[in-house]
Amino acid sequence: MARLTGFLVMLVVASSLGVVASQHHARKLYAAVEREQQRSRQLEVEWGQLQLEQSTWAAHARIEKLAREKLAMRPPLPGQIIAIEERP
Amino acid sequence: MTKAKKGVTFNHNPLLRSELPAWRPRFVLLCLLGGSLALVGRAAYLQGVNDQFLQAKGESRYARVLEVPATRGKITDRQGDVLAVSSPVKSIWAIPEDARLNPGQVRQLAGLLEMPVQEINQKLSVDKDFVFLKRQVSPELAERIAALKLPGIHDQREYRRFYPGGDVMAHVVGFTGVDDKGQEGIELAFEAALAGKPGSRRVVKDRRGNVVEDVQSIRLPQDGREVALAIDNKIQYLAHAALKQAMTDHKAKAGGVVVIDAKSGEILALANAPTYNPNNRVKLTGDQLRNRALTDTYEPGSTMKPFTAALALEKGKVTANTIINCAPGRMTIGSATISDAHPHGALSVTQVIQKSSNIGAAKMALSFPPETMWKMFDDLGFGSPLKLGFPGEVGGRLRPAKNWRPIEQATMSYGHGMSVNLMQMANAYQVFARDGDIVPLSLSRVDTPPVHGTRVFSPQTAREVRQMLETVVQPGGTAQLANVPGYRVGGKTGTSMKLVGGHYANRYVASFVGIAPISDPRLIVAVMIDEPSNGKRYGGEVAAPVFAQVTGGALRTLGVAPDAPLKPLQVARGAAAPVREAM
Question: Inter-chain contact A61–B579, Cβ cutoff 8 Å?
């Protein structure tokens, strides 16, 4: 009888230690998830900022100015344009 | 009792021998029993039946509800180029009572915030619990301020909207207020879709305030949807640049350009002048803010004539070659006299359009009852707003047919005595670009274009009027400057005087509405220039060149094959390098 009790007590202790350990593990994992989510939000924000930057650099007014002034480009004369028709 | 005899028997102590009645110990026992039963009952009640209360109390020691912010959706053009995006910024606020700063600290803070010291002192001396020192500063700056560890100075996270399109897109996209809610344009029109819904979740926090466990998501945050507009960045820029140029050349007061894809009803460009920079709205006036193409009406003038001609053709009153006598350039109806700007003799219906004869249009209009004409105008979308969902859209003026006098019917045939906005005009020209029907216009990108619209004219009529419109830009027409090399285009000029205080004043609205290419129309371009005052004032001189510039660029951008190709100057057969067009 006493032996059985002892055995059961041991089981209870082992199981409660297991609960504590898995709880700790779960919390650590959760912290990791949290960090990654934070990072994903951060990247999202950065993506928006990069898109913004790209749009600013690629603004048509800027491109046209650069093309005309720096590269001395000009729109082709109508006669210089050759249209190529695509036939499937 | 046997045991008691062996041990110390206190109850034999005569001092302790009680003379209590037998019911008293039993009563006490009963009381104790009852008490403990009540406790057990209460415990069972709290644990089993009414367990919510204590659980909630316990949870409140460690559980917190966190707000999960949602971001506002982006606005992009049809290719996905960003037109409006939210980026986090910080707002610096203070609790004046807590903010006991020494002069050195205030100077430091003023330096970082780029504000005068007095202003900060003034803000900190008000009798409030909360005051914003500066809103929407960069996160880096906020960090430097937080590093100063000033008492009573805090920051809060906010979003600021950025508009890389600047003044080119201003009227279409609009802007949001400091609270990240739409105030103008698409930002307001699509507020419901763009605005995110912040969510909240319940978490367990440890002693140090770290989140250790996610208990439940009460509400998932819903980020705002991304809105893809029908606007094409390139075509919009073309329209904006051409309009700006025309505004300066003709010293005009205002102007607008609308470009529509005739195949899908998408609005590819919507430019207005004067415009503004949505990123810096300090010196903004109401005049700059107006999206004239949608919120302002004008008398369309002769751009209305093709509809009159189309109705006459449709009802079988005339054919394209029917001769109408327009001599001597004046006509009296009732007590009023109408006239042509340049007197003409006998003109065919095609020539009435080509040379823009008021008399010719009036004579055609007077051949049918007012109701027929009113119904056509109504079918074309005049007189009521287009319902694009854009804030402040107007419908223009179209009086009920039963009140029309013959003179009014005559003047309406050439676009006077009624008013429209530029978008309605472009919308109505769909009947000529689309073989007689109209599809609803759309500000947002349309992925499956409607095949059939609402039919107004027969395809036959639409094609005949299209031929007439082409003659307008040919030699002998009123808008030879509207020609686009390489493409067949057509359209109609309009020049109308402005009503000022109930009288026609010596101010004009020059307009041109055209379609291209004629062989298979893809684009409808409407141009309106308000009060050109540099000598030129006719639609053919002022608005037609803008049309040519925008249409030419837009057709090439969209890769529409030229239907009137010019011979290439030099044929580069071997080196078949594609000739790229510059912006």
Answer: no
